[in-house]
Design a protein that fits this description.
The chain is of the alpha+beta class. It has 16 helices and 16 strands. The strands form 5 sheets. Strands 8, 9, 10, 12 and 14 form a 5-stranded antiparallel β-sheet that branches. A 4-stranded antiparallel β-sheet has the order 13-11-15-16, with no helix packed on it. The chain starts with about 35 loop residues before the first helix and ends with a strand. The model has no long low-confidence stretch (mean pLDDT about 90).
């Protein structure tokens, strides 16, 4: 036997390894059932709020308007200014804890029913099914050679997708630019660069994500899918397959005793895979790609009805329930656990405090700026005067007349008229000249206070401190 080693040319080259999985297009099959009805209801509810909220009016203006130019957010009867950013922070915190609470109780239920990616993918799929047909028709159309019919069908689908995407982008921008102004700008071809940018950007991403990427957004781009596991525990409700009941899976002839043949309830029809929008097999266990839409539950229940087996082979359940064979009542008792109580307590406290502060918010803000060009000067009557500029912000949607008074030094008074009118939801400057006797305080800075009170409502008042300089 020769000990000669093979040459480099004779050596077998290693097979190339790909770091990226080639995407296989998913043709999700439509299914009707209880959870599909819930999903349809959530689509209509969320989109009614999004598309319809734009056209609501309040006090002669758009009810919901995040006016970037004026730097004011109008939410029905409330007006928020940049100084109210604390309420935005509270809203984000409440939303985060609400998501944590829902996830700890019922897994990715938000993803399956209310996530914008899910909602718009559902809308695009409805258009796709209407134009191209159901799953088998779509597969057949994609495999067919390119001809006039295929071009017509595909063009119709994409045209409807583009219209919906642009309308979505237009609606979003309409919350930041008054909708009447935006419509007029579009009609007169006078759309601003930033408005056009955001309409086409948001519309373009809607078209891309809901029309083409779909499950890839959930699998590779969404961070929630990656950190959801830290919020799960064995008592979290998830979409589960019952292997103890379903295995061994396999087809069976009519009239054959499945148990005697060593078969479980699963007939291995693969319909649960065909209806899954992310293309997973729920029978392989919990996977991060599962968005909890429960389409597999609806279709499996229908199959169980046809073969005469009880429903619930695929169902909302928990790991503990499957392992310990818990009843529904026992599952419900396990929902109330320390994690849930903690999330609920934090959520209630933050929400309650936010509502209380919002309800007791004084609709008046005042900034006081002392004239630094003239620190102190002597008036004609021998008294010392300082000049201030008061920025009075009326955050209500009704005008007020305010009276400005000053105290902190003996006989301190405001020269000229101490009253100012501030229209609804506006900022008004008020120049205040304060005079005191030369011996009213110590040399240098002395603390004084301005009090601004609404004449028609004494409860609306603000007290701010300032410094008065004596030479």
């Amino acid at each position: 036997m020769s000990d000669q080693k093979p040459s480099a040319e004779q050596a077998v080259a290693p097979a190339p390894v790909s770091f990226y999985e080639k995407r296989k297009k998913i043709y999700a099959k439509g299914v009707r059932g209880l959870f599909d009805n819930w999903r349809i209801g959530m689509v209509f509810f969320t989109q009614l709020l999004f598309y319809g909220g734009l056209w609501l009016e309040w006090n002669g203006r758009q009810a919901i308007l995040l006016h970037m130019v004026e730097r004011k957010f109008y939410i029905f009867g409330l007006v928020f200014w940049p100084q109210d950013v604390i309420y935005l922070a509270a809203l984000l915190i409440v939303s985060a804890y609400a998501l944590f609470l829902v996830t700890a109780i019922a897994g990715r239920m938000f993803c399956g029913y209310a996530c914008p990616q899910t909602v718009y993918t559902q809308l695009f799929m409805w258009i796709e099914n209407w134009v191209e047909g159901e799953r088998n028709a779509r597969i057949k159309l994609d495999k067919a050679p390119l001809d006039a019919r295929k071009i017509r069908i595909k063009a119709t689908k994409h045209l409807l997708w583009i219209i919906l995407s642009l309308w979505t982008g237009f609606t979003l921008v309409g919350y930041f630019t008054p909708i009447t102004e935006l419509i007029n700008n579009v009609r007169t071809w006078n759309l601003g660069p930033w408005e056009a940018f955001w309409i086409f950007l948001y519309g373009g991403f809607t078209y891309l994500f809901a029309g083409f990427m779909r499950e890839q957004v959930c699998k590779y781009m969404c961070p929630y899918a990656r950190f959801q596991s830290v919020m799960f525990d064995p008592d979290t409700l998830i979409v589960t397959y019952d292997p103890a009941r379903g295995e061994n899976r396999g087809a069976r002839k009519k009239g054959v005793d499945a148990k005697a043949a060593g078969l479980g309830d699963c007939i291995d029809c693969n319909l649960c895979v065909q209806v899954c929008p992310t293309g997973i097999d729920i029978r392989d266990g919990l996977q991060y790609e599962c968005i909890g839409c429960a389409a597999c539950i609806d279709v499996c229940d229908q199959v169980m009805d046809k073969v005469g087996s009880p429903r619930g082979l695929i169902r909302y359940s928990t790991e503990n329930a499957l392992a310990k064979h818990l009843t529904r009542k026992e599952i419900a008792t396990h929902i109330v656990r320390p994690r849930i109580l903690l999330y609920t307590l934090i959520l209630v406290i933050i929400t309650g405090l936010s509502i209380w502060f919002l309800a007791n918010r004084i609709p008046l803000k005042v900034d006081i700026i002392r004239d630094r060009s003239t620190l102190a000067r002597e008036a004609d009557d021998g008294r010392i005067e300082n000049v201030y500029t008061l920025q009075i912000m009326n955050t209500e949607e009704q005008g007020h007349r305010y009276k400005v008074t000053v105290d902190g030094l003996p006989d301190a008074e405001i020269v000229d008229s101490p009253e100012v009118d501030v229209p609804a939801a506006t900022l008004q400057s008020f120049n205040a000249v304060v005079r005191v006797q030369p011996d009213a305080g110590k040399k240098g800075a002395n603390q004084i206070h301005f009090e601004i009170v609404a004449l028609d409502n004494p409860d609306i008042k603000v007290r701010e401190k300032a410094s008065f300089l004596l030479p």
